[in-house]
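Prompt: May I have another protein with tokenized structure?
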Amino acid sequence: MVKSELVQRIADQRPNLYERDVERVVDAMLEEIIAALARRDRVELRGFGIFSIKERQARTGRHPRTGAMLPIAEKAIPIFKTGKEMRKRINAESTKAESARALAEGPQSFLATSAVLEPPSATSVPGTPSDGEPAPSS
């Protein structure tokens, strides 16, 4: 989903809001998150996730073609960690889909593909501990 699709979906769900107003709110929210990260602040949206910055140290890298050593400057990397509520909802959806698929296929398809364990037969391999003889020593 891209930003314009997000704006459209929100506007469709809330007919009392104009699409241009929804777009302004989404833009303002994203701009404020970017500004906070630029200030190296942490942005926490309960249930959704946490945006933060990870500082990467300056290091020496290698040019892939020539093999020459190159200095790589330090830089800030934006990090997003999902919130607990989001993880629950995402995993609940995948669990529901798997459960629905299993129900649609029915128990017979599960049983047909499962390996059935058979009890040991009376004619087992001689010299194995299962038939009462001691195991061969090595």
Notes: Helices lie at 3-13, 19-38, 84-105, 107-113. The mean pLDDT is 81. DSSP finds four helices and five strands in the chain.
